Amino acid sequence: MTPPAINMSSSTTTTTLKNNAAFRMSLGDITPNNVGQLKRLNVVLFPVAYAPSFYKEILEVGEFAKIIYFNDVCVGGVCCRKETVAGSATQNLYIATLGVLAPYRRLGLGSKLLNHILETATEASTTPKVSKIYLHVQFGNEEALEFYKKHGFEVVEKCENYYPQFEVKDAYKLEKVLVASN
């Protein structure tokens, strides 16, 4: 299947697929009024139960947390955590979650979420500057590995027993360096 052409410059995009079916995708802010949608998505998308403190922090990261709508239906989201870098004027960004419901994958929705994070992280107005973005991918999740590699992330470490509560315990740490840290 040829991927759809997507205009990443706007928050709402109308896209036409190979079969001429059109759909709208748009990014939305995470607010106290819709954080429940994000919670429900995360229950379906991830095997981890996130604590209430996770969602409280998400409400405070601004552009680094978004939900994505497909024809006005919430189908995915991304949540990041800002981390200060000791002795540096920069910060790191950790992608805690990025997921799209299975029936809506391969439509460019995950790329739209990730590209928003990458663009926001490299904007001149972002203070402090983001030096790198990183995340963990569970061993065996080849689809996620390829997705992030396609977007310029590199595997930098194998983390043994990163997920001790799961059958597949190991993970890869992936990162993308944006600016050299001081």
Automatic annotation (TrEMBL):
GO CC annotations, alphabetized: NatA complex
Give the UniProt record's GO annotations in the biological process aspect: mitotic sister chromatid cohesion
What are the alphabetically sorted keywords of the record? Answer: Acyltransferase, Transferase
Q: Where is the signal peptide?
A: none
List the protein's name.
N-alpha-acetyltransferase 50
Q: Determine if Signal is one of this entry's keywords.
A: no
Annotated Gene Ontology MF terms? acyltransferase activity, transferring groups other than amino-acyl groups
Query: Which residue ranges does the record assign to the N-acetyltransferase domain?
Result: 25-175
Source organism superkingdom: Eukaryota
InterPro entries found in the cross-reference section: Acyl_CoA_acyltransferase, GNAT_dom, N-term/lysine_N-AcTrnsfr
Traced from the root, the source organism's taxonomic lineage reads: Eukaryota, Fungi, Fungi incertae sedis, Mucoromycota, Mortierellomycotina
